[in-house]
Design brief:
Strand content: under 5%
Structural class: mainly alpha
Shape: globular
Distance between the termini: 31 Å
Oligomer: single chain
Number of helices: 12
Order of helices and strands: HHHHHHHHHHHH
Radius of gyration: 17 Å
């Protein structure tokens, strides 16, 4: 049942380790250009998700409520503290651990492929979607790790927990997770990806991690308003 998720985790780790190995052989000029290219693609993916919304009011409310919750908890600060703790433990000089972890986790966990692929694995034993996602994530992990360091590899943990939980609980989740909920969750996630791309490009620093609670708000809203 968890084969698709385990393959996804394995390819992220393999891609990440290769990226760390190649880090010494990739000049800053090339790594910066690659990261800019990934940022642009990330924004395009985000725009695709965001424009698919069928109820932009739900998206707006979700982002506002999610921002209030995330800023109140100060998720960004806590993740950076966690990243600093991990970096001190592993004595890594390979980049900002917190930034790599958050960036990769958002990219790998936000989107319909993670949800639908996990549901397919759990309900039908079909891992096709997750296999496809695994290849995409492995390539992305290689590129991200070559610039952001070991934090990218740590994103394998939330992938395992997130997709694994959906797979294991799929039989309970599916009756309550409507298509409209998925659409608006993806729309919110898409906007977060746009913000992520803007941050990577250095246009403006956006604390995207403080917006993470917004991802679950559409489910709550649509459960009440239908």
């Amino acid at each position: 049942m968890l084969l698709g998720t385990l393959v996804n985790v394995a390819l992220v780790l393999i891609g990440g380790f290769v990226g760390l190995f190649l880090k010494k052989g990739i000049s800053k000029r090339f790594s910066d250009l690659i990261m800019n290219a990934i940022a642009l693609v990330t924004m395009v993916i985000g725009i695709t998700f965001a424009t698919a919304s069928e109820n932009m009011l739900v998206v707006i409310i979700s982002l506002v409520v999610g921002a209030l919750m995330g800023e109140g908890i100060n998720i960004d600060k806590k993740l950076n503290q966690l990243g600093g703790l991990i970096k001190s433990k592993v004595k890594s000089e390979s980049g900002n651990v917190g930034e790599g972890f958050v960036t990769a986790t958002l990219l790998f966990c936000v989107g319909s492929m993670a949800i639908m692929g996990s549901l397919d694995s759990g309900l039908r034993g079909d891992h096709t979607v997750l296999y496809t996602k695994s290849i995409m994530d492995g390539i992305s992990a290689l590129i991200f790790a070559s610039s952001m360091g070991i934090g990218v590899l740590l994103s394998a943990v939330p992938i395992l927990l997130y997709q694994g939980s959906i797979t294991l609980l799929s039989s309970f989740i599916q009756p309550y997770l409507t298509q409209s909920m998925m659409t608006e969750m993806n729309a919110v996630g898409g906007i977060l990806l746009i913000g992520l791309g803007i941050s990577i490009l250095g246009i403006k620093e956006i604390k995207v991690s403080n917006l993470l609670p917004a991802l679950v708000i559409p489910v709550i809203l649509l459960a009440f308003i239908g």
